[in-house]
TrEMBL record:
Domain of life: Eukaryota
Gene: Xrcc1_2
Coiled-coil zones: none
A GO CC annotation given for this chain: nucleus
BRCT domain residues: 1-79
Organism whose genome encodes this protein: Toxostoma redivivum
Gene3D superfamilies: BRCT domain (3.40.50.10190)
Name of the featured protein: XRCC1 protein
InterPro entries the record matches: BRCT_dom, BRCT_dom_sf
GO BP of this protein: base-excision repair
Amino acid sequence: GVVLVLSGFQNPLRAQLRAAAVALGARYRPDWTQDSTHLVCAFARTPKAARARQRGGVVVAPGWIWECQRQGRRVPCGP
C-alpha cells in the first residue's frame, strides 16, 4: 500500500531510490496525489514535506527505502 513521491534527489540517486522502492512493491508518483502515502525527501523541513504531512502523508529519509530493501520487507517509518 505504499505510494511514494521523491523530493530533493537528482539522478542517478533518484532513479536508484525509485527502482528499489518499486522492486519492493511500492508505486511511484512524480508529484503528490490523493493516493500518495510517503514522501521520501532529502530535506524534511521543506514546504513540500509540510504539505505532505498536512495531507496525511508520512515523510521519510532515503535510508528507509534502503532498510526496507536490506530486510526485504516494509519496515516501520519511525526514527
